[in-house]
Amino acid sequence: MLGMIPGNGHPYSWSAIVNGYDPAAMASCPYPVIPVYLGKQPLESVRIPGAQVTHIWTENLDEARDVARAALIPNVVERPEDVIGHVDAVIISTDDGADHVRRARPFIEAGLPVFVDKPLATTREELAQFIAWHRAGARILSSSGLRYSPDYAELRDKKWRWITSTTAKSWERYGIHALEPVFIITGPGIVDVQCNEVNGNTIATLSHASGTAITIAVVPDAPATPNHIHAYGEAESRFIKLSDTYAAFRGQLVSVVEWLRSGSDPYPFEHTIELMAALIAGQESRACGTRVTTASVLEGVEALISSK
């Protein structure tokens, strides 16, 4: 488990979900929501059998020691590269999508499978490098935990005219939390993105090849994972609110473990590429004030790959 930046407590939560945890030590976690949703589960059930987070590194060594005590991690390392040769895979547990290439490079070059926290890449250059690595045979996986939320299951396999989805913080860091649950409802086919700032909020409208209209609202000071989805069809509508963060994150981590054991991707890497292209298109649209197509982003990414 490698890396921790302000506003993201995944080293605590993900490590605990895999390893189990010490409730007394976890009570001091600087992200109070984590011990709350962990504490709703029977203590003996919080673990993934046959898997273990064995090493932790964060930018602040004292923080790494705190995570290790709370989530029962036996080894704290002084450099992230120190885990090479001692682990079967690594998790890059930061959500800074403009810095994931630097963080992942040593492990991809060492031949280790790498799970990267959402979003995988929020620049054309970062996305180009991950695509090039994947085409060369590197094992790379990335997702929002909300892909695995059971709350949204009832919205799948139906035809919707319009879907709205909300999230917090910023388009760059949390837009994927609003977008990926919609993506598992609509499937691939995001055509373009128009992104605007409205009173400090980011409002994005997306066109989809299915004809479904998508609106995403990012409200910076909203609760960390509000994630309300409204879906409107010709004959019905649905409102779904994320109710079980633990179930979503556990489903995500179980999928990661199965990915490592089986050698098979749980979903096509092309889906992650499309999602990242939509995030990048949103950033570019917000900057230029016009609608940006995912195709134009991917054409630019391919040009970067070809130039290497």
What does this structure look like?
With 308 residues, the chain is of the alpha/beta class. The protein is built from ten helices and twelve strands. A seven-stranded mixed β-sheet has the order 11-10-6-9-8-7-12. A three-stranded parallel β-sheet has the order 3-4-5, with helices on one face. Helix 1 runs parallel beside helix 4, helix 7 packs across helix 9 and helix 9 crosses helix 10. The protein is globular, with a radius of gyration of 19 Å. The protein starts with 9 loop residues before the first helix and ends with a helix. The relative contact order is 0.14.
Summary keywords:
308 residues, alpha/beta, seven-stranded mixed β-sheet, three-stranded parallel β-sheet, 19% strand
Shape: globular
Strand content: 15-25%
Helix content: 25-40%
Report the major sheet. 7 strands, mixed
Radius of gyration: 19 Å
Number of helices: 10
End-to-end distance: 30 Å
Give a count of the beta strands, DSSP E runs of length 2 or more: 12
Topology:
Blueprint: H1 10-19, H2 23-26, H3 33-39, E1 55-56, H4 61-71, E2 75-76, E3 90-92, H5 100-109, E4 114-117, H6 124-135, E5 140-143, E6 162-168, H7 171-186, E7 190-198, E8 201-208, E9 213-219, E10 228-232, E11 237-241, H8 245-262, H9 269-288, E12 292-293, H10 294-307
Parallel strand pairs: 1-2, 3-4, 4-5, 6-9
Antiparallel strand pairs: 6-10, 7-8, 7-12, 8-9, 10-11
In short:
The chain is an alpha/beta fold and 308 residues long.
